[in-house]
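pls read this protein:
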Amino acid sequence: MDNKDENIKDNKEDIKPDGKVDNKADTKADSKDSKNFVINIEHVKKSFGSNTVLKDINLKIKEGETVVTLGKSGTGKSVILQCIVGLLYPDEGKILVYGENIPELDKEDLQEIRKKIGFLFQSGALYDSMTVRQNLEFPLRKLTDFNDAEINNKVKEVLQNVGLPNAIDKMPSELSGGMKKRIGLARTLITEPKIMLYDEPTTGLDPATSREISQLILETQKKYKVTSIIVTHDMECAKLTADRMVVLKDGEYIAEGTFDELQKSDDEFVKSFFEGLNF
């Protein structure tokens, strides 16, 4: 794939797929190449009280690229996503999205950037008191000037895309876990974001439904050409969707590469994610 050789870089080091550091590598992207980065995270640190979660996060993502983040539970993977969308702010460092440094934006400019970002939460985050139709209409009425006919057509379109056209008038309580994930994805995509952030998109689902959601994410990437970050423990999802994968440990990315490259890593921590896989 075109994007798989793009390394995580800071101003001093390259991280190899085996977790080793090459201090001699040239890590300065020229100005022309930098324009290709939709997301550029530089030396981000984040603590909660005395607990330092992110020590030095550096990541560059090109337009249309899908990056999967691996790491143990509670190590800050979701914190990075929340910093990108401005739900949390880093203590230090830059988070550039389309060249705009998220922590420095005022409320109005942040809202404009957020219109380009879709965030799929673990729960799907549907409003329990609204029907599926109303859940999908909500962001369109809030963020666009579509008329009723245009909204109705858009709702039907995204439901068709996620394979649930007949769920339009159901309540969230009537939906299975997999259906809620699909509707959550539909609601996120309805405003046609340029960036998608997925927080454990297959968690809590049975293997068959997890595969369906992973396939749907892949189809979404191909159809909408979005730039994506996927936080997941689901290695089948990672293998199917990732152009590139990064591994988070002790507040830093310690390795990066394609699925196949990381599977061959000699680093014990990296290897632990691939133990017992039979695909």
About this structure: Residues 182 and 244 are 24 Å apart (CA to CA). The longest strand covers residues 37-48. The two ends are 20 Å apart (CA to CA). The mean pLDDT is 86.
